[in-house]
Design goal:
Largest sheet: 7 strands, antiparallel
Radius of gyration: 51 Å
Shape: flat
Distance between the termini: 114 Å
Number of strands: 34
Oligomer: single chain
Number of helices: 26
Length: 963
């Protein structure tokens, strides 16, 4: 019996797995902590920079405010000295002085004078009312000081005038001898500073504080009256940081700040000319709120990853433990089998099949009792004789004897044969010694008559089924497969039997192999249904799709096998793939159309907004001198508007999935050179007119595919003529697609295009037919007169070239196909030399009728034309324009009209107006690069267009050209 290998050291293997998972968990946790620390530092650094920037801005504002106020105080002192004495001043004198003063300081609410007795006798706001302020700190400070002294900022107090909180900037008034005469001061209303600082964004918990350097708080924002009782002499700012540096940034932990209980990030700046320090501080908790949220999220992800790793590790260890138990059980079973070998003879004799033990010379050494039943010979006539003598009554073995096959292969060999009208299966198994050398054989003869007949009936059944039936073991070795396999896979059953699992799993497509193996393993585990579709390689090398279904059963002896059927579903799979591809293309086309509509609408509305912006800005530039400081700002508006104009074009740029590699060609030359073929293709009674752009129509394209488009569209147009005669117009021109025009052509990007137009005067099509004409195999022709692929081919070529195709058709009025190809640069040798016209001044004395439904555009264009000297008649309604022209005694020289308007479009209005004024000229202003009102889509040279947005210079130049 084959011995199992020694027991694997599973314990060491499990320790290695646990150690690896632990290292991975440590890495995940470490990375999470490192990322959190880095993000925290970046968050704090950004908050410090923000608070520092606000502190600097506060410093500049406070320094400027106090300096401007101090300058007014100094001017006030000069004013007092000029008049000789402070007692000669009054509130009226102060107000006159302040009104004459050149500076405007909104932060100062009032100027006042206090005499040497502490009485405020002059004030710019309260008139001649007198107030005693001898108890104010600024009065006591100046009275006690010697010399002229510097300015002094007082503590905040409630005003005795209006009850509002304010603080004062004061200076002493002294006589020529230096004696104290009184105080001149300026009062600062805190509401001014609070309203100004409220616009700064320091967060909901942010604060702005202005202090004297002795710790006296001048103001805070947000404002709380109780804050003025706080002693800032004990603050970290006054005690620790301000003595070290005049400015800086520091942090305060929770509970350490005076005005807020939360942790703070504080930046402070000292004023250069006043003993004042300003600080902007932010709540640390508020600053780090987003960091904490991301840290919690990262922590949860890391924890989930670690828990998943731990769970997977536990599952793996449990599976290893199961493998170890199974292996131990196999060892125990081996010992049990060895013990049972001693009593094999009784079992040997109880077997219903004839069993012989033979040597290498084919002599029978031992036989069981079933030999006598099958062959009618007792053991004495069997043991010691050749197997052929007992079975065939001859001295020589059969040519198909399995004994020799066993010797050659070293494995079991078998055969089936009929003896005396009954079927028997003869199998020969080798007997091996410890070195694997064959020392004998076990010969088994089984009566299989009943099973053979059942097998023949079963084989006849399965060989006539349209699907392949099969049976295999859990390793994928095929025990049975029907003959239909050769038709489907190319392999005969015999080849599959001999190939084992290599002729199944090894032929499965790599992309499908894991799914097949998983389903097959689940089948034998009893957990899942085996029902899969996969690709398998045909004997000839190509791939086929099969649908495989199976169930598992347990045979006698506990061996589980799978029974299944599979069929070739390649055709169905191909149809499904083609359907999915078509659905994908349809979805993509619908998405591109939706985006095109949206982009066109945005560009149109945006261009209508940009038109008055550009026009009014240029009119303003023209009306102010070059030295005016507003000129720079208006130039910035104009530049920004031009950038916005470019942005609308970018909104309309779309790409294709499969770009075509092509060469520059002149579409005009392709059409002309292909004309002979067209004339031979269509009937002679059909007229073909060509209206080609004289400047050429250069595109990047495949010449043969362009000829195919021309041929297919021409043949399609020919089929539209039910009678004999007809006309086909082929036109090319260069057009610019932008703004409103893109609404009419969904899917196109803004830019320069070459338009190829096919127009016929045939029977036309209904809207329902037009909606399906590009679908493959759709045709309105009788059966046998067309495949329905002509226009579908044209559509495919157009999309491959990154172009756009549109169709317009009406029953009884003909059909027009417009194809827009992206322009390309023509060869240098054929490029015309362009001479730009120099700028000129515009003026006019003509009468202009302006019709525009957009109010802003209409007002702006009217002002442009009036500034240029034109007489203007304006209206938003085309019908009103007809009434104005009919009732106007003066002739109207020019119509300036929008193209698309409610009720009547621009070209229709012009056609009705020329009936009254035959010499009337027209300029259309529109987002469309060509006239959308012309049903055929052709361009006429006499129609003048100006695309929005435009400048005043462009409008006046276009009008000058038309007139």
């Amino acid at each position: 019996m084959e011995q199992l290998s020694p027991l694997t050291n599973y314990r060491a293997f499990k320790r290695a797995i646990v150690a690896s998972v632990a290292v991975l968990i440590i890495f995940i946790v470490g990375f999470s902590v490192w990322k959190s620390v880095v993000e925290y530092r970046l968050t704090i650094r950004a908050a410090e920079l923000q608070s520092r920037g606000y502190a600097r801005a506060l410093k500049e504002h406070a320094d400027r405010s106090f300096s401007e106020a101090d300058k007014i105080l100094l001017d006030s002192l000069d004013h007092v000295r000029t008049h000789g004495d402070i007692n000669k001043e009054s509130s009226g004198h102060l107000r006159d002085f302040l009104n004459r003063h050149s500076g405007y300081v909104p932060q100062i609410s009032a100027i006042f004078l206090v005499n040497r007795d502490g009485v405020m006798f002059a004030h710019t706001d309260i008139g001649d009312r007198r107030i005693n302020v001898a108890d104010r700190d600024f009065f006591q400070h100046h009275r006690a000081a010697t010399g002229n002294g510097a300015s002094f900022l007082s503590r905040p107090v409630k005003s005795r005038v209006n009850g509002k909180w304010r603080f004062f900037l004061t200076r002493a008034v002294r006589s020529a001898s230096g004696s104290f005469e009184g105080v001149v001061g300026a009062s600062f209303e805190m509401e001014y500073f609070q309203e100004f600082y409220a616009s700064l964004d320091l967060g909901k918990k942010g604060r702005i504080v202005i202090l004297r350097k002795d710790g006296m708080m001048l103001m805070s924002q947000p404002y709380k009256e109780s804050d003025f009782s706080a002693d800032f002499k004990k603050s970290h700012l006054i005690r620790t940081y301000l003595p070290k540096a005049a400015s800086g940034t520091f942090h305060i932990a929770s509970g350490k700040a005076l005005l807020e209980s939360s942790g703070r990030i504080i930046s402070y700046e000292s004023l250069e000319n006043f003993p004042v320090v300003v600080n902007a501080n932010m709540g640390t908790d508020e600053v780090t709120a987003s960091w904490r949220k991301s840290t919690y999220t990262l922590g949860l992800i890391a924890a989930a990853a670690c828990m998943a790793l731990i769970a997977l590790t536990m599952l793996l260890l449990r599976q290893i433990k199961r493998i170890e138990l199974v292996y131990r059980r196999q060892l125990e079973q081996q010992r049990e089998i060895s013990q049972a070998a001693a009593s094999w003879q009784s079992t040997f004799d109880s077997v219903a099949d004839a069993i012989w033990v033979m040597d290498l010379g084919r002599r029978i050494q031992r036989c069981n009792k079933a030999t006598e039943t099958i062959f009618g010979k007792d053991q004495d006539r069997v043991v010691g004789h050749l197997c052929c003598e007992v079975a065939h009554h001859g001295a020589h073995p059969l040519a198909t004897c399995p004994f020799q096959k066993m010797l050659d292969s070293g494995q079991r060999a078998s055969m089936q044969l009929m003896i005396s009208g009954r079927w028997f299966e003869v199998s020969v198994d080798p007997i091996l010694d410890g070195n694997g050398t064959i020392t004998g054989a076990v010969h088994i003869v089984s009566d299989i008559t009943d099973s053979k007949m059942a097998e023949e009936r079963y084989r006849m059944l399965v060989d006539n089924l349209p699907v392949v039936t099969w049976q295999s073991d859990e390793h994928g070795n095929t025990h049975f497969i029907s003959r239909v396999s050769e038709k489907i896979e190319g392999y005969t059953p015999e080849e599959i039997y001999a190939g084992g699992e290599a002729l199944w799993f090894a032929r499965v497509h790599q992309d499908d192999l894991q799914a097949v193996l998983k389903a097959f393993k689940g089948l034998f585990a009893g957990d899942d249904m085996y029902d899969v579709q996969y690709r398998i390689r045909h004997k000839e090398g190509h791939w086929i799709w099969v649908h495989d279904f199976a169930y598992a059963t347990t045979l006698q002896g506990g061996v589980r096998v799978a029974h299944g059927v599979f069929s070739d579903v390649s055709a169905r799979k191909q149809a499904e793939d083609e359907r999915d591809e078509l659905e994908m293309r349809l979805s993509q086309s619908q998405k591109m159309e939706a985006i095109g509509h949206l982009a066109g609408g945005i560009a149109h509305d945006f261009n209508n907004l940009l038109t008055p912006i550009l026009g009014y800005a240029e009119m303003a530039v023209a009306s102010i001198p070059d030295s005016d400081p507003l000129l720079t700002k208006l130039s910035g508006i104009i530049a920004a508007a031009h950038k916005a104009k470019d942005l609308t074009r970018q909104l309309l740029s779309f790409g294709r999935q499969r770009p075509v590699s092509a060469e520059p060609v002149d579409l005009n030359e392709v059409i002309i050179s292909f004309n002979d073929i067209l004339r031979r293709t269509v009937r002679e009674s059909i007229r073909i007119d060509m209206i080609l752009d004289p400047e050429g129509a250069y595109i990047k394209a495949d010449r043969s595919q362009m000829e195919q488009i021309i041929l297919n569209l021409t043949v399609n147009a020919q089929d539209a003529f039910n009678g004999v005669h007809g006309r086909i117009n082929i036109e090319t021109c260069r057009v610019t697609m932008d703004g409103e025009s893109l609404r009419m052509h969904p899917g196109m990007a803004a830019g320069e295009y070459v338009l190829l137009s096919f127009r016929d005067n045939g029977c036309g099509m209904s809207a329902d037919v037009v909606s399906h004409i590009f679908e493959p195999f759709f045709t309105t022709k009788p059966i046998g007169h067309g495949t329905g692929l002509g226009l579908a081919t044209v559509y495919g070529i157009v999309k491959q070239h990154g172009a756009h195709i549109a169709v317009t058709s009406h029953v009884g009025e003909g059909t027009t196909f417009n194809i827009y190809f992206p322009c390309c640069e023509q060869p240098d040798s054929m490029k015309p030399q362009i001479t730009e016209a120099g700028p000129g001044k515009h003026s006019g004395d003509a009468t202009v009728l302006l019709v525009e439904d957009n109010d802003m555009v209409r007002e702006m264009v009217g002002e442009m034309l009036e500034a240029a000297g034109y007489r203007i008649i304006t209206t938003a309604d085309p019908h009103r324009a007809l009434e104005l022209v009919a009732g106007n005694n003066d002739a109207v020289d020019l119509l300036v009209s929008d193209v698309v308007m409610p009720g009547m479009n621009g070209p229709e209005l012009y056609e009705r107006l020329v009936l009254h004024a035959p010499s009337l000229k027209v300029v259309y202003i529109s987002g469309y690069p060509m006239n959308p009102a012309m049903r055929g889509g052709t361009l006429e040279d006499e129609v003048r267009y100006l695309q929005k947005p435009f400048t005043a210079e462009a409008l006046l130049e276009r009008i000058r050209q038309v007139l």
